Task: inverse folding
């Protein structure tokens, strides 16, 4: 509530309700260029409300991961750069800041494809999550992570390299939680996991959001699952945002239904071939 | 027939043959011919014997550096054993010449071939290793060869050294700096010509593919182990050939110079000259040899200044320090080496006055 | 039999020292994948710095020892900051050659100041530290080596297993991108690993100096002996470095004692070639998992 000069009583916050909601992250028309030549984002604007789950959908190569990396400052090691526009987080300009700075502001990104520390045990992996506030006690946070992901308790001494995909996904989300994130960005948490595990992970994501008020940005291919937990959604294509809206509106949108949920207007799944031909006829934007 | 033009202002290549061409224009070809004419028909007759000696050392070093560049710059395998390979070549030639009375015309290439064999033995680990591990394996090769050269006294006379006979073609003795100048530089031109052309062949392309991504190269059907070994062989052949020339030129050899320091000098030549660039290796050899000479001169000069003598400072190690510094500075500021500087100078002349 | 036991004890002591020297090397390799050819010169710098402090500045032994460790810690930090950091992400050969260049620079510098002579420290180890077990005599310096090695091993074991910085260092070695995404200060980790490596190197340089005298050529050649040690143990295993060190130490003393003294120095490299051919990633190294 830092933006308001007078501290309002909780009731007032409640009464003012929706209007009061605070934008925690704002991207204004950002462009990202890799190696000085490859433009991947061509003017992306989006805003994330505090305490919301926002999902970003789109096919491969649409620029979803790049958007996340632009926010978390991880573009630089890959020779990428935000050339235009601004990223405002909590009132501060953070475009092209170092990842060390950004993570210390409370933005933590969970990388695509899990990326555990293979030769560290589960518990050591979790301890690396405390890097942004090193030296502070971490026992309580460990308990919290184990509360969300009870599977990890029995594996705490095992090397991460020997754990299953589902355990690893839980591990990396837990590892990010250890940093007390204000804004948690998840890059395809469902990648390569069994449907039941995916369901479990999304349940926990929702729980984290509800219990801690952690703002979550969710990048997903699994649109149905993502829109179920998210409040708001963006659809990206070719480095641009082509559609946005409340999750339930998006879910009912015929285009989204067809492309991402695999259903025709009538509700029957269409074959991939039909979708392709449709796509050729009517390009978005 | 290509049109005669002074310089192309961009990339006008239209066919693969043009992509492979060595000279972009006939102008470059003429320049090289002029340079070679001056080198062979003017230079040896006007310069002082000392300069000629330096030129000869440069020529020998350049042969070894061109060979090492094939391995490091084109195939991407680092060898820390080339100092020892150079020594193997020198000893092979010396032993062939003294024990078997082989003529130098056969002894020098034979020394190259023997060294190629030795190099391939120490390249064997490249079948399973790459990167750092291979580098360390070649380091072990360096020490083992040094040990064998010193300890196998029956063959190498150990620390005593071997004195070589004067090389002869028919009745004509090759001795003195001028005669060796022709021997060394004709070899250098031939070896460079061979190296440039091997890089344009199937083998060269395989080497480059292995350097850029060995897994992908394997996937494309290149038998990478065979080609890595071949690259070790070719590059050791160059080292051995240069070593043999050196042995004949120096007349008597001992094991002392073929240490790790020499290996490092060869790598420094390749890096300072520019990796993956054959003229670059020659530039690098020139630079390092001149630097060595300059530093030797400088330390002698400094040691005779009373002021420094009164300080009691030993200036000789300055050479080592500056040598290290040169490597460090080149890597930090111009990692693509002298070849890149040369290219920049050339193109700024070419594009002048409209450099943009 | 006594001769055998004496060689065994000497071998273990020398080997432990090799192992400790290699530890700093492994640390740099583990965190930043840099093969440090200047390691021997770091040993020598530590030994000479200590020499200067006790002979020129006439400081008490303990003060000089601590000052040396601090000085080398800083030195390692500076080396990383000014020479290695610009090369992050460059090709392997550049990094290797940079350390080779640094090695030549340091060696030249030491030779300029001290020359190639052999110096000895004034003896300060008490003869009562010597151990006599039957016919086997353990010289005070070997006892000191044993004690110091053990202390350092325990400290480093705890550091890497328990302390936050230690775990961050291992995480960077493991997966740099993930460490970056969690806010680990990767550059600080690199700098720290160089600083610690230089500290460990200076310590082993001092002990080697006590044992064999201080000479820049000897010390820098020991820096190269680190390679067989770490290859035997696996380039990325700190415990492996110690075991590798002991094996190489034993090999050396036994070859020196039973076969020939001249073979002694080359045996580690012969073993090295065989290891590389048979078990390329060493006894304890992690096999690199590579995917296209």
Result:
């Amino acid at each position: 509530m830092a933006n308001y000069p007078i501290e309002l009583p909780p009731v007032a916050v409640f009464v003012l309700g929706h209007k009061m909601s605070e934008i925690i992250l704002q991207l204004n028309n950002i462009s990202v260029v890799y190696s000085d030549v490859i433009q991947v984002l061509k003017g992306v604007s989006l805003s994330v409300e505090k305490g919301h789950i926002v999902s970003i959908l789109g096919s491969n190569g649409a620029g979803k991961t790049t958007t996340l990396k632009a926010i978390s400052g991880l573009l630089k090691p890959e020779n990428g750069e935000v050339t235009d526009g601004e990223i405002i987080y909590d009132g501060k300009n953070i475009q092209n800041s170092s990842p060390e700075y950004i993570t210390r502001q409370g933005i933590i990104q969970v990388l695509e494809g899990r990326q555990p520390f293979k030769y560290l045990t589960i518990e050591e992996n979790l301890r690396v999550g405390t890097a942004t506030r090193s030296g502070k006690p971490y026992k309580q946070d460990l308990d919290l992570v184990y509360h969300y992901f009870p599977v990890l308790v029995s594996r705490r001494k095992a090397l991460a390299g020997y754990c299953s995909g589902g355990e690893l996904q839980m591990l990396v989300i837990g590892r990010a939680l250890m940093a007390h994130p204000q804004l948690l960005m998840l890059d395809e948490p469902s990648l390569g996991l069994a449907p039941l595990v995916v369901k479990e992970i999304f349940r926990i994501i929702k729980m984290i959001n509800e219990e801690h008020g952690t703002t979550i940005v969710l990048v997903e291919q699994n649109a149905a699952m993502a829109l179920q937990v998210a409040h708001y959604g963006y659809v990206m294509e070719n480095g641009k945002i082509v559609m946005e809206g409340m999750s339930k509106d998006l879910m009912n949108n015929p285009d989204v239904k067809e492309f991402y949920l695999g259903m025709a207007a009538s509700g029957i799944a269409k074959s991939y071939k039909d979708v392709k031909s449709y796509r050729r006829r009517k390009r978005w934007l | 027939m290509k049109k005669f033009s002074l310089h192309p202002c961009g990339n006008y290549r239209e066919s693969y043959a043009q992509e492979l061409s060595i000279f972009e224009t006939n102008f470059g070809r003429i320049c090289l011919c002029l340079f070679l004419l001056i080198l062979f028909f003017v230079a040896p007759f006007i310069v002082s014997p000392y300069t000629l000696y330096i030129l000869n050392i440069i020529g020998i070093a350049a042969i070894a550096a061109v060979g090492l560049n094939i391995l490091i710059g084109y195939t991407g395998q680092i060898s820390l054993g080339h100092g020892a390979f150079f020594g193997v070549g020198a000893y092979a030639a010396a032993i062939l010449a003294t024990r078997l009375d082989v003529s130098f015309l056969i002894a020098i290439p034979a020394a190259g071939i023997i060294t190629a064999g030795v190099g391939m033995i120490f390249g064997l680990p490249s079948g399973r290793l790459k990167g750092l591990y291979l580098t360390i394996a070649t380091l072990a090769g360096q020490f083992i060869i040094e040990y064998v050269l010193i300890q196998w006294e029956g063959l190498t006379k150990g620390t005593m050294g071997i004195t070589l006979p004067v090389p002869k073609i028919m009745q004509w003795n090759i001795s003195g700096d001028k005669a060796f100048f022709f021997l060394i530089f004709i070899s250098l031109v031939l070896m460079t010509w061979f190296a440039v052309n091997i890089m344009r062949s199937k083998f060269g392309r395989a080497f480059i593919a292995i350097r850029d991504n060995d897994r992908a190269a394997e996937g494309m059907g290149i038998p990478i182990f065979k080609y890595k070994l071949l690259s070790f062989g070719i590059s050791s052949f160059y080292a051995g050939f240069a070593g043999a020339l050196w042995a004949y030129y120096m007349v008597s050899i001992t094991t002392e110079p073929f240490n790790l320091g020499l290996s490092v000098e060869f790598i420094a030549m390749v890096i300072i000259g520019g990796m993956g660039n054959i003229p670059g290796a020659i530039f690098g050899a020139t630079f390092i040899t001149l630097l060595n000479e300059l530093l030797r001169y400088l330390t002698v000069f400094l040691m005779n200044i009373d002021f420094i003598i009164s300080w009691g400072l030993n200036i000789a190690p300055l050479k080592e320090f500056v040598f290290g510094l040169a490597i460090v500075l080149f890597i930090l500021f111009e990692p693509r080496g002298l070849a890149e500087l040369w290219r920049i100078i050339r193109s700024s002349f070419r594009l002048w006055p409209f450099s943009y | 039999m006594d001769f055998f036991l004496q060689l065994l004890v000497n071998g273990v002591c020398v080997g432990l020292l090799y192992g400790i020297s290699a530890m700093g090397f492994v640390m740099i390799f583990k965190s930043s994948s840099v093969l440090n050819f200047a390691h021997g010169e770091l040993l020598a710098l530590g030994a000479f710095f200590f020499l200067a402090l006790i002979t020129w500045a006439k400081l008490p032994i303990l003060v000089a020892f601590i000052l040396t460790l601090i000085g080398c810690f800083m030195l390692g930090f500076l080396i990383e900051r000014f020479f290695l950091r610009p090369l992050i992400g460059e090709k392997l050969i550049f990094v290797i050659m940079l350390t080779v260049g640094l090695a030549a620079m340091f060696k030249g510098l030491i030779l300029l100041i001290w020359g190639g002579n052999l110096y000895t420290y004034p003896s300060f180890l008490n003869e009562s530290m010597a151990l006599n077990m039957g016919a086997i005599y353990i010289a005070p310096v070997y006892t000191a080596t044993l004690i110091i090695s053990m202390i350092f091993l325990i400290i480093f074991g705890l550091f890497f297993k328990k302390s936050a910085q230690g775990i961050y260092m291992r995480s960077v070695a493991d997966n740099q991108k993930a460490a970056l995404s969690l806010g680990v200060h990767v550059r600080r980790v690199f700098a720290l690993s160089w600083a610690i490596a230089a500290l460990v190197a200076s310590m082993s340089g001092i002990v080697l100096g006590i044992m064999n005298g201080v000479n820049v050529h000897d010390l820098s050649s020991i820096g190269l002996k680190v390679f067989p040690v770490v290859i035997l143990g696996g380039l990325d295993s700190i415990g492996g470095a110690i075991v590798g060190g002991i094996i190489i130490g034993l090999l050396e003393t036994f070859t020196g004692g039973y076969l020939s003294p001249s073979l002694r120095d080359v045996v580690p490299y012969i073993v090295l070639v065989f290891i590389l051919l048979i078990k390329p990633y060493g006894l304890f190294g992690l096999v690199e998992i590579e995917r296209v």
